[in-house]
Amino acid sequence: MVDGLRAGNLTKLNPVTDIAANLKVVEDRITAAARRVDREPAEIRLLPVSKTKPPAAVLEAHAAGYRRFGENKVQEAQVKWKALSGHADLEWAVIGHLQTNKAKHVARFATEFQALDSLRLAAELDKRLHAEGRRLEVLVQVNSSNEDQKFGLPPEEVVGFAEQLRAFDALEVRGLMTLALFTDDQARIAKCFERMLQVQRELRDATGEPWNELSMGMSGDFELAIEHGSTCVRVGTAIFGSRGSGDSPETWWPGLFQ
Questions:
Q1: Which pLDDT belongs to residue 3?
Q2: Looking at the domain assignment, is residue 93 inside a domain?
Q3: Which pLDDT belongs to residue 10?
Q4: Does residue 226 fall inside a structural domain?
Q5: Quick one: which of 90, 152, 198, 228 has the fewest CB in 10 Å?
Q6: Counting runs of H as helices and runs of E as strands, what totals does the chain give?
Q7: DSSP conformational letter for 122
Q8: In what order do the strands lie in the sheet with 136-141?
Q9: Cβ contacts of residue 120 below 8 Å, gap of 6+?
Q10: Percentage of residues in the chain with pLDDT exceeding 70?
Q11: What radius of gyration do the chain's Cα atoms show?
Q12: What residues have CB less than 8 Å from 89, skipping those under 6 apart?
């Protein structure tokens, strides 16, 4: 299996798109990219990103064998979590920037958070998780492209930040996440991924911990990310299709976003 988070099949619903077929194509591309660099495809987790897509689309991917889904916005993730609460094995990964005042929501329902970049947020998440009696898998977001408009820690600050995270025992810190430069220049994208490998090595040397998870790569660059050591690729468009103007979550169930 390409994805370590696959589950048993559910009864197939009427397809809303070619999601199952798209998943198979992405899986095959992951396998090919891994083998090009002598990696085992099973080392790479495919995280379908269902942002702006309706719960029916999530269920189709679920029926194809996936149970953890990435969402950028907490409010949208919450709506889907509640709407699909009958599927107890569904899990949610919040992969977008999180304001501290929304940490209480993530602590309530999320299994994974991939965008930790401040001690204030870490402390709030830890407090809320303890209140809920839960733990949270966490990745530290790194601004590998050094773009001012992007969230994430500068690479040179990651080691110091990581050492301070030891104080928060409800956070299961697994590794690192980044968004590479948005460009067609493969060499410039590769430099972002290479920078992440360097940060990972520095973390291992400084902390003695594995920091195994590297969440790198999206629909446009996930194969290159795999060739540079990614263990988790966050793929949305290549699975669920483009996000057009008709994909507004507020239209799914009037009232739920009020």
A1: 39
A2: yes
A3: 30
A4: yes
A5: 198
A6: 9, 8
A7: H
A8: 45-48, 232-235, 213-215, 171-177, 136-141, 112-116, 91-94, 68-71
A9: 100
A10: 88
A11: 18
A12: 7, 67
Residues of the domain holding 39: 19-243
In order of 48, 75, 121, 123, 172, the CA distances from 98 in angstroms are: 19, 11, 8, 13, 17
Mean pLDDT, to the nearest integer, of 69-93? 97
Distance of alpha carbon 9 from alpha carbon 124, whole angstroms: 37
Q: Rounded to whole angstroms, how far apart are CA atoms 153 and 14? A: 43
Residue 46 falls inside a structural domain: yes
Number of domains in the chain: 1
Q: What pLDDT, in 10s, does the model give residues 131-165? A: 999 999 999 999 999 999 999 999 999 999 999 99
Residue 227 forms part of a structural domain: yes
Paired strand residues for 137: 112, 172
200-256 pLDDT per residue, tens: 999 999 999 999 999 999 999 999 999 999 999 999 999 999 986 445 555 544 444
- In three-state secondary structure terms, 24 is helix
According to DSSP, the residues that pair with 91 across neighbouring strands are 68
pTM of the model: 0.90
CATH number at residue 162: 3.20.20.10
